[in-house]
Design brief:
heterodimer; A: about 200 residues; mainly alpha; Four Helix Bundle (Hemerythrin (Met), subunit A); 5 helices; about 70% helix; B: mainly alpha; Cytochrome C Oxidase, Chain A; two-stranded antiparallel sheet; 23 helices
Chain lengths: ~200, ~625
């Protein structure tokens, strides 16, 4: 074994992970979230496949309102596009367009939350007798709503820091929130397809 | 020039009392809203009962606690676009000048958090142990004497859930948080506030869990099986919220640890040079981050069943209790390795120090732990062998479960290889290490019978299972915990423990532990089911034997706590800086460890096990010699 440091470094100040740590952690959170989503998917498929007592989707129990469900997907997709544009602008140091795009993303994120709350109000299921399709649909939509709200709050903090110039948006932050929003939007689309068409 | 403390800092100084006040206020608000507003929105003929009030009360009590502790200051500041905290604020939150008070408030120093964890773990070990003493006292006679069936089941559930709660953080909480950043050569965790949050979620979890006694308790044991969980009284809500908080804490802690280990290592600290304990924490953290969400999903379903009358686990409504069993054990079995893998890591970290030899088969040991981690995700259905699992699935789960003994065996081989022809120092931690290997061997052997379908049909839900579990967790993890406390106390507190008393305590705990659980293996083989207050008269002698040994075990564990408290707070004997002459990075930094660990970051150049030559594993610059206190 050599006595010399293999790194060849002599002056080391810090090993702060910085942006790399943030982006990496964002993906770790997505991995953990995947277990949560797969657990809900397992419950969906398990209860549907077994249809215990014919109570998976009893007659008279409808599906979530189609139009509102589609609108609830359109807004996060617009947000996603705006966040992608934010990330692109921050990465290329085109600062002039960042604030406007951030506001657009935040506005669409707020609409996403509002429409999804409205959608859940339209379910109109008596949960104690509506069967397990209604139960898992309600829970899954509630989980996704919670996740949209959490990422939306994170987005709000980034917008406020950027527009008040207390904490200008970094490429790592833009990338991390883009990843999170893209993930939840993707899951929402899959959940929509499952609940509307694999009933 | 220092500025006067801000209002936030003054409030933070009162963190714990304010947290408790916030908890009470949060509960009252949540209870009021959940009891009145939510049922109102369901119409007058709703049948929601009191569960929404209790559940919302508990949820808001946690929010209130965290708000009182000051956890919401930073995120609210960010939401308002306020400036980031100043260097002075960060130093204060880090506990740089806090003295004793920093242990009772939110701090971001990983070493303070490690000690906070240690105190909490020992407190819950003690409370859970008291529960065990009550259980054994009740089982002195075949018929109920001091408890009713309902209160006995609540006692069993509380004991087991508290101990699971304790065990899930017993190694990573104190030692992972304290030593991993030092071992990998960084000044702090990747997300220090998140690290503090993972700790401060646990005291409310414990309080909520214990509050079940005021709500009628819960009769499901720690596994919370449906449909009993759906039918239980309000005490079940305590279990659900308490366990969910533990799951959230495990998951967040896992994410933080992985991020720290994989992105913040010091220069030269390649993965192949990481101390074996850090590897064990990394593997465990992946288990926690990836398994805990399954528990959270299951708990959410149960909360929906109990509060909104959904039917996830109610067969009449289209649900199935097997759904709970599957989701619970998808978390529950990796959870067992969340207990044990860091214990393996600690043991292998200490072995080279006391054998004065390099760790034999380092890469094999890493492979073994990774193998355990991977396999732990594909074995959960062996818990369902007798619950109606499709017969065609049994061989796969029997095979995968038995396969897990291979990587576990590798850990034993590594230990044997390290011990082979070594000049072993039979120090007190080393005694506990030998105790660990003996106990875990019995735990492993008994586990093979439970992974085997025919024998599992005979032994399932008997005391054999209970004894097997205690051999692995108490005989394994808790012995490793005691070894680690004795080993690391000089570094964590600057104090040392009475070796003679500890040797006596080791033999006392070792003999009484084995006496207790060999008796319980025997009653299990003879057919005594677990979680019942009555048993056949012919099993009484073995139960009396188990109880007498259990009293001895309780006393010897209390003795350990007594020695620890006596040495740290009363006798206060100053320990040498490196009493075990370890080459580990953590022993080369001064005691007490500086606030940000290092004056300059170390440059790692080898594994810290080169006892053949005695060369340290990292370059700290000229100021810090190896073996400085030996």
């Amino acid at each position: 074994m050599s006595d010399a440091s293999p790194t060849g470094l002599t002056v080391i100040d810090d090993a702060k992970g910085g942006g790399r740590t943030l982006v990496f952690t964002s993906r770790l959170v997505m991995a953990a979230n995947t277990t949560l989503q797969l657990s809900l998917l397992f419950a969906f498929l398990y209860l549907r496949a077994n249809n215990f007592g014919g109570m998976w989707h009893p007659s008279g129990i409808g599906t979530p309102p189609q139009v509102l469900a589609l609108i609830s997907l359109a807004f996060p997709l617009i947000t996603l596009f705006a966040l992608w544009a934010v990330w692109s602008a921050v990465s290329k140091a085109r600062d002039s367009s960042v604030s406007g795009l951030l506001w657009l993303a935040l506005f669409e994120a707020v609409l996403t939350g509002a429409v999804r709350i409205l959608l859940m109000y339209q379910f109109n299921w008596e949960l104690d007798s509506a069967g397990t399709y209604a139960a898992i649909s309600t829970l899954w939509y509630a989980v996704l709503l919670g996740e949209f709200i959490l990422v939306g709050l994170w987005l709000l903090s980034l917008v406020m820091g950027h527009v008040r110039r207390t904490d200008p948006l970094s490429p790592a932050h833009a990338r991390a929130i883009l990843d999170q929003w893209a993930y939840i939007t993707g899951v929402s689309i899959v959940v929509y397809l499952l609940i509307q068409y694999v009933k | 020039m220092s500025t006067p403390p801000t209002l936030a800092r003054r409030l933070n100084e009162w963190g714990l009392p304010l947290g408790i006040v916030g908890m009470v206020i949060g509960f009252l608000i949540g209870f009021a809203v959940g009891t009145h507003a939510i049922p109102y929105s369901f119409g007058e003929d709703n049948s929601l009962g009191s569960d929404p009030g209790i559940l919302l009360g508990y949820a808001l009590s946690v929010v209130g606690f965290l708000a009182g502790m000051g956890f919401l200051n930073y995120p609210i500041g960010r939401l308002l676009g306020a400036k980031r905290p100043s260097e002075e604020d960060n130093a204060y939150i880090h506990g740089e000048s806090g003295g004793l008070s920093r242990y009772f408030r939110m701090t971001t120093d990983h070493k303070v958090i490690g000690l906070q964890y240690l105190v909490m773990i020992l407190a819950f070990l003690f409370i859970g142990g008291l529960g065990a003493m009550f259980i054994r006292t009740e089982l002195l006679t075949p018929s109920p004497t001091i408890a009713t069936a309902q209160s006995y089941l609540t006692l069993v559930g509380l004991h087991s859930t508290l101990m699971i709660f304790m065990a899930s953080a017993a190694i990573i909480g104190p030692f992972g948080n304290y030593f991993v950043p030092i071992m990998i050569g960084t000044r702090n965790m990747a997300f220090p506030r998140l690290e503090a949050l993972t700790f401060w979620l646990l005291p409310p979890a414990g309080i909520i869990l214990l509050s079940t006694v005021f709500l009628g308790g819960f009769t499901t044991g720690w596994t919370g099986y449906a449909p009993l969980a759906d039918q239980n009284v309000l005490g079940m809500d305590s279990y659900l919220i308490g366990f969910a908080l533990i799951g959230i804490s495990i998951g967040l802690s896992g994410v933080n640890m992985i991020a720290t280990i994989l992105t913040m290592r010091a220069p030269g600290m390649a993965l192949s040079r990481m101390p074996i304990f850090v590897w064990s924490v990394l593997v465990t953290s992946f288990l926690g981050a990836l398994a805990a969400p399954a528990l959270i999903a299951a708990v959410m379903m149960e909360v929906f069943d109990r509060s909104y009358q959904t039917t996830f686990f109610v067969p009449a409504g289209g649900g199935s209790p097997y759904l709970w069993e599957n989701l619970f054990w998808f978390f529950g079995h990796p959870e067992v390795y969340i207990f044990v893998v860091p214990a393996f890591g600690l043991i292998m970290e200490m072995l080279p120090v006391f054998t004065r030899r390099p760790l034999w088969g380092y890469r094999v040991a890493v492979g073994g732990m990774v193998g355990i981690g991977l396999l732990s995700f594909v074995v959960w259905q062996h818990h369902l062998f007798v619950s109606g699992l499709a017969p065609s699935l049994r061989p796969f789960y029997m095979f995968s479960t038995e396969l897990i003994s291979v990587p576990t065996g590798i850990i034993y081989l590594v230990a044997l290889g390290t011990l082979w022809r070594a000049r072993t120092r039979f120090t007190t931690p080393m005694l506990f290490i030998f105790g660990f290997f003996f106990n875990f061997l019995i735990g492993g052997f008994t586990g093979v019978f439970l992974s085997d379908v025919p024998s599992d049909f005979t032994l399932h839900a008997s005391y054999f299972v209970q004894a097997h579990f205690h051999y692995t967790i108490m005989g394994g993890e808790v012995f490793a915990l005691m070894a680690a406390i004795v080993y690391y106390l000089p570094k964590m507190t600057g104090r040392t423990m009475d070796i003679r008393l500890l040797r006596f305590q080791f033999w006392a705990v070792f003999i009484t532990f084995n006496g207790t659980f060999i008796s319980l293996i025997s009653v299990g083989i003879l057919g005594m089911p677990r979680r019942v207050i009555s048993y056949a008269a012919y099993l009484q002698p073995l139960n009396v034997s188990a109880t007498v040994f259990a009293y001895g075990l309780g006393l010897s564990m209390t003795l350990f706590l007594g020695i620890l408290l006596w040495e740290v707070f009363i006798k206060q004997r100053v320990a040498a800086a490196n009493p075990w002459e370890s080459l580990g990075v953590e022993w080369q930094v001064p005691t007490p460890v500086p606030t940000f660990n290092f004056d300059r970051l170390p440059v790692s150049w080898s594994l810290p096990y080169d006892y053949d030559t005695g060369k340290p594993a990292a370059d700290f610059g000229p100021a810090v010699p190896a073996f400085s206190g030996a």
